[in-house]
Description:
By secondary structure, this protein is α+β, with helices and mostly antiparallel strands. The protein has helices at 4-11, 40-60, 103-116, and strands at 17-24, 29-35, 70-73, 77-83, 90-97. A five-stranded antiparallel sheet has the order 2-1-5-4-3, sandwiched between helices. Strand 4 and strand 5 form a beta hairpin. The longest helix is centred in the middle third of the chain and has 21 residues, at 40-60.
Amino acid sequence: MANINESLAKLLEVDGAMCDALVDANSGMLLGKAGSGLDLDLAAAGNTEVVRAKMKTMKSLGLNDAIEDILITLGKQYHIILPVASKPGLFLYLVLDKNRSNLALARRAAQEVEQALQI
Length: 119
């Protein structure tokens, strides 16, 4: 089990990782952040809206399921949003440099960190 700061530091070890955060999707507030390259406070608030919109759409469609992760692909970056299964309402947010990262390995590392997270 790892605490928030250890978990975020571990995620930054992924090839191409730029920054990451643990976010409260109920408030949009950061619970922890690491790395650089983005305004993570602004990103946390904006991606909270992404998570809320997806949850609302799933409810409207009558989908009785859970989000495993949300991937946003930009020209130069990947953004991964990964809900924390053990703590509903929280999500990990990871930003990767698209040219220096392996998306499959990064998703796997994010899942491992999410499962070991001690909050």
